[in-house]
What we know:
The protein has 10 helices and 10 strands. The chain has helices at 7-35, 73-83, 86-106, 120-124, 128-139, 158-170, 187-190, 202-207, 212-227, 240-248; strands at residues 39-48, 54-65, 69-71, 114-117, 146-151, 174-180, 197-200, 231-235, 253-255, 263-264. The site of one calcium ion has 4 residues, from loops. This is Signaling protein YkoW.
Amino acid sequence: SKNNGAGQYRFFTSDMNDEVSKKLMLESGLRKGMISEEFLLYYQPQVDVLTGEVKGYEALVRWEHPELGMVPPAEFIPLAEETGLIVPLGRWILQEACRQMAAWKEEGSTVTRMSVNISTLQFQQPDFLKMVTEILETTGLPPEYLELELTESIVQDLEHSVPLMKSIRAKGIRISLDDFGTGYSSLSYLKDFPINTLKIDKTFMDSIEDGQREEAIVESIIHMAQRLGFNVIAEGIEKCSQLRLLSEKACQEYQGYYFSPPLPAEAIRVYKGQKDEE
Length: 278
Ligand code: C2E
Ligand code: CA
Ligand code: CA
Ligand code: CA
């Protein structure tokens, strides 16, 4: 091809092609990856603010692509949603998280909660709850050990989501509202949601030290959630100062690099659910 005035254009198209071909590569890779077992789960501890005790884990999917290396979920989850592949992938994630949690329970772990992210398309499947209960049965994990993480955008359609959430709770399965404060949040919806846990999004925690207003907002969310009877987990805690503020505000739990990044199963020390000191 020519190296002239069309350079700008060529650059643009080749960029587009890169984007498209990467997308195609990821898309076909997603299918192959599921067959050749390139996916794995990492687990991030959810910790008691006051005692430092691990109360739960959040399962976070990882993809070890043979050529691209670790592909972050932010890149392939949306694609898996678009292509519908999130349905079988999501089922595998749930199955694997429940299997792992049941195994840790067998080994004597005192941690009693495994949180699993659920995507929109998954939640919309007519047999969603049946799929979840079948996984609980086959893995032997007690329903109250499982917490499904739903975002505000997933539960937007109240006519569908509220009855389904109630059926989920009726089975003893827990629900958390993820990324609270980022989406289409309407405080009035909260009274209708049969949730156990509210997760305050990282963006709030990033700004909590910025001033009175930011602090006041976080404080209000914590108090409101507690008055509604929800467990509160603050996400994305990276600094001691943030943790100190959380304890002042009587927030129950947190999750973040300050305690631990997400880790592969082998790196989780389960017996007392403690942070691995070594
Ligand atoms: P999320 O559900 O909000 O998960 C929390 C994300 O924050 C994770 O990113 C986690 O690694 C990261 N994180 C935790 N602590 C800190 C911290 O202190 N600082 C910073 N900067 N980040 C922290 P990850 O694993 O890359 O996942 C990104 C998103 O991808 C998740 O956001 C979730 O929306 C989606 N995702 C991940 N795993 C799954 C899954 O198994 N199923 C579905 N449907 N979505 C998933
Ligand atoms: Ca989550
Ligand atoms: Ca989140
Ligand atoms: Ca998020």
